[in-house]
Write a structure and sequence with these properties.
The protein contains 6 helices and 14 strands. By secondary structure, the protein is of the alpha+beta class. The protein has 2 domains: 5-96, Phosphorylase Kinase, domain 1; 98-241, 2-Layer Sandwich (D-amino Acid Aminotransferase, Chain A, domain 1), CATH 3.30.470. The strands form 3 sheets. Strands 8, 9, 10, 11, 12, 13 and 14 form a 7-stranded antiparallel beta sheet that branches. Helix 1 (59-76) packs parallel to helix 6 (243-255). The longest helix has 23 residues, at 158-180. It is globular, with a radius of gyration of 18 Å. The structure holds adenosine-5'-diphosphate and magnesium ion (MG). Adenosine-5'-diphosphate (ADP) binds at residues 5, 7-10, 12, 37, 82, 94-97, 99, 192, 194, 212-213.
Amino acid sequence: MEKLYEGKAKVIYPGPEAGDDPLSGQSPSGPVHPRVVRVYFKDDATAFNGQKRAQIAGKGVVNNQVSAALFRYLEAHGIPTHFVRQLSEREMLVKQVQIVPLEVIVRNRTAGSFARRYGVEEGRVLPYPLVEFSLKNDALGDPLIYDDAVLALGLVNGSELARIKELALKVNALLKAYFAQRNLELVDFKLEFGRLLHSAAPADERGAIVLADEISPDTMRLWEMGTGEKMDKDRFRRDLGGVEEAYQEVLRRVQAEPSA
Ligand SMILES: Nc1ncnc2c1ncn2[C@@H]1O[C@H](COP(=O)(O)OP(=O)(O)O)[C@@H](O)[C@H]1O
Ligand SMILES: [Mg+2]
């Protein structure tokens, strides 16, 4: 099957053609609206900008299902996302977007690159959630970028920037509550946004900013409440062991009924 793109963790394939458009169903002869693509989740894991590579057995299955559950939850709470539906254990159907080349990071506690950059200990509770941007560019090592540079480089316009920050903070509030009910603390996470590609989309939806990519233990830090045990990709980055088990446990908590 022809690939549109293969990245470090996922492969993007062309979605169903017009005619069996799962979204509209009303325009068998017209253009698909919007265009959809299939995302396949691999077990490949990388860290430190690709320097560390391995396979985490079952990771793709976990990340697909966790992402699907979180996109459904966020959509139900008013966040526009690219998610259409889950297709199989490792595949989901999404609306194709033009990815904004920013990694949008939200932090509730100090950790990872933030703690290293500013020389602070990990785990300090921040007085309010921070939104941070990195330029999504592997060759440059995803450098930190500030608002004025984002705008000057034309990566987004002013209203898109405001919208991205607003959505990122809303997603944070929703996910924090979601994981708290599952005895996990959301320490930080990375989001990607895109502009909705159209064809026959209503004019007011064309170019609209939607949440894209994935939300999974690869892209979040989740700590067990009480013990602070790491339940995310840091187990792989830091050779803590129990990597597969942590991913499976996150999936189990996501699938369980909330407890609190
Ligand atoms: N709805 C979408 N439409 C088009 N591209 C997307 C969509 N969602 C995510 N992507 C892009 O697809 C790629 C997903 O594969 P991944 O393995 O994460 O790549 P990378 O190694 O670049 O992070 C990413 O580049 C991501 O930005
Ligand atoms: Mg990626």
